[in-house]
Amino acid sequence: MRTLLFFICSFLLFVSCNPEKEIKKVRIGMCSDVHLPTMHDAEYRISSFIDSMKIAKPDFIVELGDFGIPDERYEPYFDIWNSFPGPKYHIIGNHEMDGGTSMEEALAYRGMKNSYYTFSQNGFLFIVLDGNDKEYPEQKGYRSFIGPKQVKWIKKELEKASQPIVFFSHQGIGTDPGTPGERYSIKNSEEVRAMFEEHNRNHPKSRIIASFNGHTHHDFAENINGIWYITINSMAYKWLGEEYEHLRYSEEVDKDFRWIKFTAPYKDPLFTVIEISTEGYIKMSGKYSSYVGPSPWEIGYPEHLKQFVKPEIRERLMEF
């Protein structure tokens, strides 16, 4: 009897301690493209997100870039972000260096040691990328590239990984089509995706599950060879361009926030909570809004982008 009891207890202990039997879950509060300098109601938008996250209590929050520049005008909004009591992470977008801000200044203001880095939470490894590398030394203006030095670093992080992996970046690695005539995924996205897929073939226990990005102000998700590439819509608006100028608010607002008239603002801020489980699913909460003023289609925006350009983050269940 004692022998039988010993074997039962040993078996139960083995099952409870066996990591292959353990289900891991992580909940993430996520937003993107807040664009604090652009919106006159930025405080309302970022406050809505943080207030909601204090109630939802995810394991951490992350913003996927284009948040704001280091300027005393925006300090209160950064303070609101920092009021979340749990872990919080920034990704560097292309607009973080607006107004002559250097990468070093943008990082220092956020307390970041580097523009690409890793962290772990609840048995998952998260790898943050910087899509702002130069494609060639003399390149000027906004960039969308992951350079050789960073690619080498990614390979080293993947090789030593022992947990399921999720990537974050501002510019996308999938095929989100972006704005008419422009390619918004990083220029060497095929190279990066091939690296991801090779890793998954050789390391199934530390497989790459998903890669989240912002940048295009779209609601978009696709599965490419077993990896989910998910674009999180902007908290604030869809950029349309100067050819679609329309005064959305008052002349007083336009005087101080002159870029809004080239956008289609969302009435309510968009953000989401995402749950990822080793049971094989990604759950995304939905949030729906409407446009302030006419829709993009009412002022001539290309109809073929209608499936992506919507004032919403759809509720999704994605299996892997």
Structural overview:
It contains 7 helices and 16 strands. It is α/β, with parallel strands linked by helices and 320 residues long. It has a single domain (24-319), classed as Purple Acid Phosphatase, chain A, domain 2, CATH 3.60.21. A 6-stranded mixed β-sheet has the order 3-2-1-12-13-16, covered by helices on one side. The longest helix is centred in the N-terminal third of the chain and has 16 residues, at 2-17. The model is unreliable at 1-19 (pLDDT under 50).
SSE arrangement:
Blueprint: H1 2-17, E1 25-31, H2 42-56, E2 60-63, H3 75-82, E3 88-90, H4 103-110, E4 117-121, E5 124-128, H5 148-160, E6 165-168, H6 189-202, E7 208-213, E8 220-224, E9 227-231, E10 237-239, H7 251-256, E11 263-265, E12 272-277, E13 281-284, E14 287-288, E15 312-313, E16 316-319
Parallel strand pairs: 1-2, 2-3, 5-6, 6-7, 7-9
Antiparallel strand pairs: 1-12, 4-5, 8-9, 10-11, 12-13, 13-16, 14-15
Helix pairs in contact: 2-3
Concise summary:
The chain is α/β, with parallel strands linked by helices and 320 residues long. It contains seven helices and 16 strands.
Number of domains: 1
Q: Order of strands across the biggest sheet?
A: 3-2-1-12-13-16
> Which bin fits the share of residues in helices?
25-40%
CATH class: Alpha Beta
CATH superfamily: Metallo-dependent phosphatases
Instruction: Specify Rg, calculated over alpha carbons.
Output: 21 Å
Let me know the largest β-sheet. Answer: 6 strands, mixed
Runs with pLDDT <50, length 5+?
A: 1-19
Strand content: 15-25%
Average residue-wise pLDDT = 93
